[in-house]
User: Which sequence fits this backbone?
């Protein structure tokens, strides 16, 4: 009998978020939700999803439920 694990990921790349957060903090024109959004660029999530998908493929993951929102952010 094979053992299974369940793994959930929050797909964002920390280094990208840190870099964009510094940019936003230095831009006084961005506040509130605009600042929050600017500090979390879509490519941070998209790249993390691609990496997670690749790792799932390489490890023969049985199920990759990325959800519709995750798929849309990649394209």
Assistant:
């Amino acid at each position: 009998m094979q053992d299974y694990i369940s793994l959930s990921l929050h797909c964002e790349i920390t280094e990208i978020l840190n870099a964009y957060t510094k940019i936003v903090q230095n831009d006084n024109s961005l506040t509130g939700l605009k600042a929050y959004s600017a500090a979390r660029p879509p490519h941070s999530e998209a790249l993390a999803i691609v990496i997670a998908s690749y790792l799932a493929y390489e490890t023969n993951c049985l199920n990759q439920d990325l959800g519709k929102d995750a798929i849309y952010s990649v394209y």
Summary: Helices lie at 14-25, 32-38, 42-58, 67-74. Residues 42-58 form the longest helix (17 residues). The chain is about 60% helix and 0% strand.
